[in-house]
Amino acid sequence: MAPTTPAQQTAVDPAELLADPYAVYARLREAGPVHRITGTDGLPAWLVTRYDDVRQALADPRLALDKRRAKPGGYHGLALPPALDANLLNMDPPDHTRIRRLVVKAFTPRRIALLREPVREAADALLDAIAPLGRADLIAAYAGPLPITVICDLLGVAESDRPDFRVWTDALVAPDPARPQRAKDAVRSLLGYLAGLLASKRADPADDLLSDLVAVRDEEDRLSEDELMSLAFLVLFAGYENTVHLIGNAALTLLTHPDQLAEVRAEPGRLGDAVGELARYDGPVPLAIRRFPTEDITVGGVGIPAGETVLLSLAAAHRDPRRFADPDRFDLGRDASGHLALGHGIHYCLGAPLARLETEIALAALLERFPRLALDVAPDALRWRPSMRSRGLRELPVRY
């Protein structure tokens, strides 16, 4: 291993990080590339903050996602039962390659392009429902329901089941410390629901992704039962969670930057390219999924022993002035093509084309329908969900 320097032992106040994450990450990034911190569960981890180091680490095969590579006593992140944990976020090649290959055909740019009209129809229907009200919470009434509608249509989930799924997902990603049982109940409910859903697809297959995956499991034996259940969970979970906050954060960014909003209104065709800068500026995933070195490695000149937990800060990387000029400024004219909001390397987000499409259409439909759209509260009165895993608003009150 190359000569290394010791990492700084850094205290990170979770409350401060939730209140103003970019200021905290800026302080850490300028103090050093890698910090030894205590994770949200009280266990030690290594936090990487600079763009070049984060990007390189995302694609480094020596940084495993498989939790079996972790040494005892380290930070593991979200704990799930085996039936939900055998998913792509806990896998490395060759299992990762095998399973990703089975589902990637559902998310090719060509297949996603066919969803443009259905997504716009779903967005218009949601806006039709709130148009007469004059005021709404964009998260509850629009940014939340739209991704659920799209991903559940793709998977073949009944409309009546969708509200429950949103409640379960919120309980997992932003757990209430005062109600720890709520997250456990959500896991139990998800397991029961997915087991029933997969049983229904076996009994009555349809033209949807889950029916296709059941066939792969039952007829071709290329998935274990846990892998099938975990894959269904991951597609539902990630298809909702990241996209709802990408849309919500993007809407807030535009509403708090009236000059940039005016440019988009004047040239709606720019929205497709704008999604990259919106994701860079205030993306939905502050930290990439935890990783574990398979051998002693060096990151940013700092030695990290095998088996320890490594957290890669996408939020810090996206505001790194070494990569993005004037990074705290939202700029629609910026080339944000190097952003890492949807990952990098073999773990690049499977649903990235769909997330980009949904965000572009959601914003286009919203701005077209409501030319006088504005925040209905002061920006500093907005409340963010208490989560280190995702960055999203509790609500986004607007008037139109």
Question: Which tags fit this structure?
Answer:
about 400 residues, three-stranded antiparallel β-sheet
Structure notes:
The chain is an alpha+beta fold and 400 residues long. Helices cover 49% and strands 8% of the residues. The chain contains 17 helices and 11 strands. The strands form 4 sheets. It has a 4-stranded mixed beta sheet, with helices on one face. The chain has a 3-stranded antiparallel beta sheet with strand order 5-11-10. A two-stranded antiparallel ribbon has the order 4-6. Helix 7 (116-130) packs across helix 9 (145-155) and helix 13 (225-255) packs across helix 15. The longest helix is centred in the middle third of the chain and has 31 residues, at 225-255. The radius of gyration is 21 Å and the shape is globular.
Radius of gyration: 21 Å
Strand order of the largest sheet: 1-2-3-9
**Helical region count?**
17
Shape: globular
Approximately what portion of the residues adopt beta-strand conformation? 5-15%
Poorly predicted residue ranges: none
Helix content: 40-55%
First-to-last CA distance: 59 Å
Average the pLDDT over all residues and give the rounded result: 90
